[in-house]
Structures are given as structure tokens and as C-alpha cells.
Amino acid sequence: MNRMLKMSRIQILLISAFLLAIAAVACGSDGGGEGVAMGGTDDWPKRIRTIESTTVFTEADMKAVGWKGQRDFILEYPGTSLAKWGYMNQKEVGLLIYATAEDAKSLGVTAAEGQTFRREGDGQAPDGNLIDRISCRDAAGASAVKANTGFTAKSFSASYIDPEIGESDDIQGVGGACSNRFPTYNDYTVIGNIVIMCESDDRNLTEPSTNCAKIEEWLIPAE
Question: N or C terminus: fewer CB in 10 A for the chain?
């Protein structure tokens, strides 16, 4: 049974503040590059893009530009017709598809803010099962985690929350339990009716993502 996506009061306040900031994207950049709104904090920055499009994108459109879907997210994402994680250019990308661009810019932004949320101080994922995809990293920012879900064929670059294994804090890192739990996704892009949440290009999870930066170019190529 799926768990409802829940957010703390602090997260809700942060999201409300972010919604005010993201409205400024249409008026220009705030220092993160063309068309980019910077979120997060100075220590844990993230890049958010909102791209207007009248195209209603589908999962097939994402597959056509190289996204390889893997599994559905476990948490519930209200308003989505698809909520799934996969890989693109050897990096993880989460995909949320909505009926309309308006839903993506409201429900989708709320979901993406929740899934990229980092707690103050250490930048790790909040306590509890609020984030679907968690990367287990040592102090140097390197090491994959193995999903403790019964799928033994491969080690994932991020954990997969599974309600059948209890409270899902039972994530196993390389060489033992995971003590450093970071959100896998940091940057995200809203384009038309979809939201993509991206893993960093680098081992440092707050470095920029080419997938999030280039998705407009790939989905809407210049004529």
C-alpha cells in the first residue's frame, strides 16, 4: 500500500517561499544562469527551471530523448498520471507527468520541492520516509547504495523506499548501514505538463545536472 506524501511544517513554509521566488524566473535570472531560479541554500544550492510549453508531453516523448524508465515511485504524487524513476545519460532522473501545465507548476513544484528537500545543517534528507530516492554517501560524497527491497540483481545509485520492509531506514550502503542519507535529486525542471527531477552530473549531489539543463533542447528541438 502506498504511503501518502507528507511534509513537515518547515518544508511547507520553505515551499511557500520558493513559489514566490519561482515567479521571478519569467522576469530573468537571479544569478543561476539563463532561465534558472536558484533554490536551496548557499551550502546546498539547487537549480529550478520553469519552461512554458503548450505541448502535452508523454512518457513516450521522454523515452524518445533517451530516458529509460525503471520503477514507479512508492510515495503518492497527487494529480500525476505517471510518477516513475529511471535513467538518462547514466544519471537518475525522476519523471512526474500531469494532465496540464498548470498542475505541473503547482502540484509538480510542491512534489519536486519535497523530493529535493535538505534539512538544515548537514544537507541530508529529512527524517522519516518523506523522500522516495535516497543516495548513501560517505564524507567524500562517493558510494552507491544497495536497495534493500529483495531485488538482488543490481546495486542502485539510490535507495528505493519499500513499505514491505518496515520503516525503510534499513538502507544498506557499501560496507554496512547508510549513515549519510542525501536526496538523490537536487535540480528539477518544469516543462509544460511534466516535471523532471535530476541527479547531479558529478559525485557531489549538488553539482549541476545536464539532463535538467538540456531537456528543453531535447524535447523541443529548434527548427
Answer: C
> Considering the entire predicted model, what is its pTM?
0.74
E strand map for the chain: 37-40, 45-51, 68-72, 80-88, 91-98, 133-136, 145-146, 159-160, 172-173, 176-177, 181-183, 187-191, 194-198
Angle at the Cα of 11 from the Cα atoms of 5 and 16, rounded to 5 degrees: 105
Average pLDDT for the chain: 76
The percent of residues above 70 in pLDDT, for the chain, comes to 65
Give dist(CA 183, CA 32) in Å, integer.
21
Distance separating alpha carbons of residues 194 and 103, to the nearest angstrom: 9
Distance of CA 14 to the CA centre of its chain: 16
pLDDT tens-place string over residues 6-39: 444 444 444 444 443 444 343 333 334 457 888 8
Give domain limits for the chain.
9-121+186-219
Quick count: other Cβ atoms within 10 Å of Cβ 74? 21
CA–CA dist 153, 82 (Å, integer):
25
Cα–Cα dist 143/166, whole Å: 24
Q: Helix H segments across 66-108?
A: 101-103
